[in-house]
Amino acid sequence: EVTNLIGINAPILGFFNLTLTNLALYSIVLLLLTLGLHFVSSNNRKLVPSKWSIALESSFASVNTMVRDQIGTANEVYLPFIYSLFFFIIIANLTGNVPYNYTITTSIVVSLGLSLTIFIGVTILALSIHKVRFFSFFIPSGTPLALVPLLVLIELISYLARAVSLGVRLFANIMAGHTLMKILSTFLFQMFSSSILVAVLTVVPFARIHSNYWFRNRSSYPSYVT
């Protein structure tokens, strides 16, 4: 739930109203956290990279590989934006696992705002690059002339639906995951607190299963774990 934290009214400036909500506060914190992680993990002055540097370089390499496969090496100019968006969303989702934290991607405003903004930007960029040829993407090759109006309408609706579907997908996935975690945690807490016997009978089998799995597969774990 989005709540107001600080509100500032300035009647001298007319109807000027500045309000800081928990959504805006967590967005600023996530931005600073993302920038801080990359600043701390920078390896400019060190010969041996740290674990954080290796982790971020691996993430960048993975995103770079996916971007190259999709848009080619000639369009790597868009890689910084794609990587920044990827890292911001994944940090926002991971911090949502912290108890009593607010996940900004559970807000439909943020999810749809990101998807619509990127959709409009991509469309403007495509129009500036391809000009009138951009509209040829709505006509599949080899389409009979009689079916062109129908297929253009279908392709146009499909293209416009991406702006909404991507935002709703992100919002729905995170909201469903948090709702499931809340239901399970509430159920387990009530079950454990109802009786000590129930808690013991529930925990012991899971501990036994985990120990059997660990002893059976401990050879596959790194040496510092075993």
Show the helix and strand layout:
Layout: E1 4-10, E2 16-21, H1 22-40, H2 51-71, H3 79-95, H4 108-130, H5 148-194, H6 196-217
Antiparallel strand pairs: 1-2
Helix pairs in contact: 1-3, 2-3, 4-5, 5-6
Task: Give a written overview of the molecule.
It is a multi-pass membrane protein. Its main location: mitochondrion. InterPro entries: ATP_synth_F0_asu, ATP_synth_F0_asu_AS, ATP_synth_F0_asu_bact/mt, F0_ATP_A_sf. With 226 residues, the chain is mainly α. The protein has two domains: 1-98, no CATH class; 107-221, no CATH class. Helix content is 66%, strand content 6%. It contains six helices and two strands; from the N terminus they run ββαααααα. The protein has helices spanning 22-40, 51-71, 79-95, 108-130, 148-194, 196-217; strands at 4-10, 16-21. It has a two-stranded antiparallel ribbon. β1 and β2 (16-21) form a beta hairpin.
Radius of gyration: 25 Å
* Total strands: 2
The major pleated sheet works out as: 2 strands, antiparallel
Give the DSSP E fraction (strand runs of 2 or more residues).
5-15%
Spatial order of the strands forming the largest sheet: 1-2
Considering DSSP H and I runs of 4 or more, what fraction of the residues is helical? 55-70%
Principal-axis shape equals extended
**Unreliable segments of 5+ consecutive residues:** 221-226
What is the SS-derived class? mainly alpha
Structural domain count: 2
Number of helices: 6
Note the run of SSEs as H and E: EEHHHHHH
